[in-house]
Amino acid sequence: MSAAEEENEKKALLAAGVVLGVVGTFAAIVKAALDQAARGDNNKK
User: Where do the TM regions start and end (predicted)?
Assistant: First the structure.
């Protein structure tokens, strides 16, 4: 594998890691919001 190919592979892995991080963070925020909403609904009853 050439140096350019290795560099492209590193960039692709880095980009994939960033995407996974963003998606994971978003999922955690959504889950927290849903948990909060569920607790809020329970408190109203």
Answer: 12-34
Give residue limits of the domains in the chain.
17-45
| 1: Cβ contacts below 8 Å, ≥ 6 apart | 9
The two structure tokens encoding residue 22 = 């963003």
Q: What is the mean pLDDT of residues 25-45?
A: 88
Judged against a pLDDT cut of 70, whether residue 4 lies above it is answered with: yes
State how far Cα 45 lies from the chain centre.
33
Q: How would you label 8-31 residue by residue, b for 16+ Cβ within 10 Å and e otherwise?
A: eeeeeeeeeeeeeeeeeeeeeeee
